[in-house]
């Protein structure tokens, strides 16, 4: 079920502060992020958390989220499934690449195993609590806004195509809504 673009924008503006407040005071990660620290953050934030020690599955805003770490390789991934690749409308890949340039910010659209994903990838040891929470919020927001603003947050990096495309889409929706009244 896709949210209407205006509702999705309102939702994404409220998601990040919600994640930060739910996390509570951050544990000390001066020595770098660990699976133990991530486990604590995920269990305070996620709904229906399963797994641990390198692979967690849970829900945020009703969306399935998977976090995978590899301490030896010093990597962490946040993954949210978005859509089946076979169901993507013609021209959608170009729009996804435009979003990756300017409105996806730190999260990205990616394709693997026949699915379109929203993904955030970061070195595990250098990851702070704030960066994890930001990455989680951006990844979920990017999945929520697929098909509308294709945005992981309220910002759009200048110089790309997304801002003008979003403005045109919003104007089109307002005109259609106005004609229906």
Secondary-structure map:
Blueprint: H1 5-23, H2 35-45, E1 47-52, E2 55-60, E3 63-70, E4 75-84, H3 92-102, E5 108-112, E6 115-123, H4 129-144, H5 162-180
Antiparallel strand pairs: 1-2, 2-3, 3-4, 4-6, 5-6
Helix pairs in contact: 1-4
Offer a few descriptive terms.
181 residues; alpha+beta; Yope Regulator, Chain: A; six-stranded antiparallel beta sheet; 5 helices; disordered N terminus
Offer a quick outline of the entry.
It is built from five helices and six strands. With 181 residues, it is an alpha+beta fold.
How is this structure best described in words?
- The chain has a single domain (5-180), classed as Yope Regulator, Chain: A (2-Layer Sandwich).
- Helices cover 42% and strands 24% of the residues.
- The chain has helices at residues 5-23, 35-45, 92-102, 129-144, 162-180, and strands spanning 47-52, 55-60, 63-70, 75-84, 108-112, 115-123.
- A 6-stranded antiparallel beta sheet has the order 1-2-3-4-6-5.
- A hairpin with a 2-residue loop joins strand 5 and strand 6 (115-123).
- Helix 1 (5-23) runs antiparallel to helix 4.
- The radius of gyration is 17 Å and the shape is globular.
- The two termini are 24 Å apart.
- The model is unreliable at 1-14, 16-29 and 166-172 (pLDDT under 50).
């Amino acid at each position: 079920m896709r949210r209407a673009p205006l509702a999705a924008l309102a939702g994404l503006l409220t998601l990040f502060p919600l994640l930060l407040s739910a996390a509570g005071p951050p544990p000390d990660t001066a020595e770098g992020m660990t699976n133990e620290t991530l486990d604590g953050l995920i269990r305070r934030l996620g709904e229906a958390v399963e797994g641990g020690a390198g692979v967690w599955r849970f829900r945020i805003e009703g969306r399935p989220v998977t976090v995978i770490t590899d301490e030896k390789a010093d990597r962490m991934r946040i993954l949210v499934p978005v859509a089946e690749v076979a169901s993507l409308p013609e021209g959608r890949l170009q729009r996804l690449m435009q979003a990756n340039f300017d409105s996806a910010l730190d999260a990205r659209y990616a394709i693997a195993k026949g699915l379109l994903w929203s993904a955030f990838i970061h070195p595990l040891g250098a990851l702070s609590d704030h960066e994890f929470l930001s990455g989680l919020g951006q990844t979920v927001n990017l999945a929520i806004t697929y098909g509308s603003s294709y945005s992981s947050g309220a910002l759009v990096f200048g110089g790309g195509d997304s801002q003008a495309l979003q403005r045109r889409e919003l104007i089109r929706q307002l005109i259609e809504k106005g004609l229906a009244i």
